[in-house]
């Protein structure tokens, strides 16, 4: 942002700009949940294997998370309005391509493109709001709207995904983005004011390539291990996992030496901030898997329609929204650490309660209590962790620090989905070896062999156990690294440069 000695002139279109940005944020949040409900239908229509189905979600989250920091740097130097508009148009094009997908490879590529353009769209939208709303009271209102959309958008996506999938078909969960993104881009052209940072642009392309390549190799290695013809001892699996380690280590070394790094290591080097990012990564890994396995359980085992599945997920989103207000009032009294510890323990307990599911429909006595408990726990994690992740950050690092929080969650989701899918399928296959398969007749009359419901549930149980382990590791990360007392937390906030906590939304 350009420094000015005089008081900044308020943009007369700033509230209209907020409406445009709010629509773009809603679209990004929707895309995170709307596809989960349609995933069983996508898998069947495109004949995607159980080992590869997670790529429909992972291709998006991996591209989004690994390129988000680079997207923020591009927005600052290339122009925030220009980046925002290109992100919208690209997101629309990628969504259109995904909706036309004739094969699994096609939709994986389209979802990756969606993630790429979302990595341009999300940070530019946040930067535009920061530049437009300079008065503290107005900025608080603007980010309140932004936060409400971020919190409620997931719930809307669950319902909308079910309605579109059951009514028009799964392709419309992608095509629905096209008119929204294009109309928003047109409005942005006339309403949004351009802004960019001073100085010579510097993009850490080697860092971006190493991070993306390393994460891609890691996820593909886990996916390869889940394939019956490969496994953990397969040479390609070993090569991918070894290559991932090499690329990610090289990324850290490059970031230590490059002049303008993609990830300034001074930010996560602080134990409290680093622990917060690690906690968010582990939470993202466990949480994404819960949505994946429950979606297949409700539709593939219990026989729910996509809309019914979306509605049965709603208690989770509603629980987070309702509990968030309580957390906001408690944090000044208790400090963040006790809330994070209690929240992670509660969420892990809720995940373990999902082990009570069976092939019979007992949603209200098994699934509902579990996801309600998890929603309360997650609300007690998200808000305090967002604050500790920015603790002690100077104003010049506020944008990158908040973007890293989002990156941690997306990357955690990508890696977690791949790892937990592999472990879940291994448990499912062991059960199939013991009790055999059953037959299923497709719409075209083809008879195929499929796992019995008991085997599917056994696989889901393994996913929930390891999901709880990941949340437990998040709790351990908090206990070890986020060692901040209430008075230290408040003192640090009082002493640091002015950093808007809303940037961590």
Write a brief structural summary.
The chain is mainly α. It folds into three domains: 11-193, MFS general substrate transporter like domains (Growth Hormone, Chain: A), CATH 1.20.1250.20; 205-263; 264-505, MFS general substrate transporter like domains (Growth Hormone, Chain: A). It is 76% helix and 2% strand.
What does this structure look like?
The chain is mainly α and 505 residues long. The protein folds into three domains: 11-193, Growth Hormone, Chain: A, CATH 1.20.1250; 205-263; 264-505, MFS general substrate transporter like domains (Growth Hormone, Chain: A, Up-down Bundle), CATH 1.20.1250.20. Helix content is 76%, strand content 2%. The chain is built from 17 helices and two strands. It has helices at residues 14-45, 55-78, 80-99, 104-132, 136-167, 172-175, 177-191, 205-226, 235-257, 266-269, 271-301, 306-334, 336-353, 367-388, 398-435, 453-481, 486-495, and strands at residues 437-441, 447-451. The chain has a two-stranded antiparallel sheet with strand order 1-2. β1 and β2 form a beta hairpin. The protein is globular, with a radius of gyration of 22 Å. Residues 1-6 and 497-505 have low confidence and may be disordered.
């Amino acid at each position: 942002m350009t420094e000015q000695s005089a008081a900044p002139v308020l943009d007369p279109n700033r509230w209209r700009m907020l409406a445009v940005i709010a629509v773009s944020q809603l679209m990004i949040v929707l895309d995170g949940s709307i596809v989960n409900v349609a995933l069983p239908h996508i898998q069947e229509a495109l004949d995607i294997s159980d080992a590869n189905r997670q790529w429909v979600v992972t291709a998006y989250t991996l591209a989004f998370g690994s390129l988000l920091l680079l997207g923020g740097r591009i927005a600052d130097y290339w122009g925030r309005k220009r980046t925002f508009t290109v992100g919208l148009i690209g997101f629309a094009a990628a969504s259109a391509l995904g909706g036309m997908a004739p094969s699994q490879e096609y939709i994986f590529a389209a979802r990756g493109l969606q993630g790429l353009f979302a990595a341009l769209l999300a940070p530019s939208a946040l930067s535009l709001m920061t530049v437009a709303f300079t008065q503290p009271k107005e900025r608080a209102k603007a980010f309140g709207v932004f936060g409400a959309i971020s919190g409620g958008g997931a719930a809307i996506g669950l319902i909308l995904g079910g309605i579109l999938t059951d009514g028009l078909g799964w392709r419309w969960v992608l095509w629905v983005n096209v008119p929204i993104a294009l109309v928003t881009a047109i409005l942005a052209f006339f309403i949004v004011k351009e802004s960019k940072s001073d100085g010579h642009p510097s993009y850490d392309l080697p860092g971006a390539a190493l991070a993306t390549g390393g994460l891609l190799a890691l996820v593909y290695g886990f996916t390869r291990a889940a394939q019956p013809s490969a496994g953990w001892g397969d040479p390609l699996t070993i090569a991918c996992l070894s290559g991932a380690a090499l690329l990610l280590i090289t990324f850290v070394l490059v970031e230590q030496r490059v002049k303008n790094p993609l990830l300034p290591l001074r930010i996560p080097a602080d134990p409290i901030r680093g622990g917060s990012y690690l906690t968010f990564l582990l939470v993202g890994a466990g949480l994404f898997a819960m949505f994946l396995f429950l979606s297949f359980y409700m539709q593939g085992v219990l026989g729910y329609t996509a809309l019914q599945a979306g509605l049965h997920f709603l208690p989770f989103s509603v629980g987070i929204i309702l509990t968030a207000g309580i957390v906001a009032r408690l944090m000044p009294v208790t400090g963040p650490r006790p809330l994070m510890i209690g929240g992670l323990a509660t969420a892990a307990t809720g995940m373990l309660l999902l082990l009570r599911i069976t092939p019979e429909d007992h949603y209200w006595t098994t699934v509902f209590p579990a996801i309600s408990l998890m929603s309360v726990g997650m609300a007690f994690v998200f808000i305090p962790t967002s604050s500790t992740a920015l603790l002690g950050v100077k104003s010049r690092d506020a944008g990158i620090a908040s973007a890293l929080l989002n990156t941690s969650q997306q990357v955690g989701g990508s890696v977690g989905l791949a790892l937990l899918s592999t472990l879940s399928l291994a448990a499912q296959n062991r059960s199939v070896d013991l009790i055999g398969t059953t037959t299923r007749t497709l719409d075209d009359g083809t008879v195929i062999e499929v796992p019995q419901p008991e085997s599917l549930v056994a696989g889901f149980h393994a996913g929930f156990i390891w999901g709880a382990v990941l949340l437990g590791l998040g709790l351990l990360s908090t206990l070890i690294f986020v060692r901040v007392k209430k008075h230290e937390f408040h003192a640090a906030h009082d002493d640091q440069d002015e950093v808007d906590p809303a940037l961590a939304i």
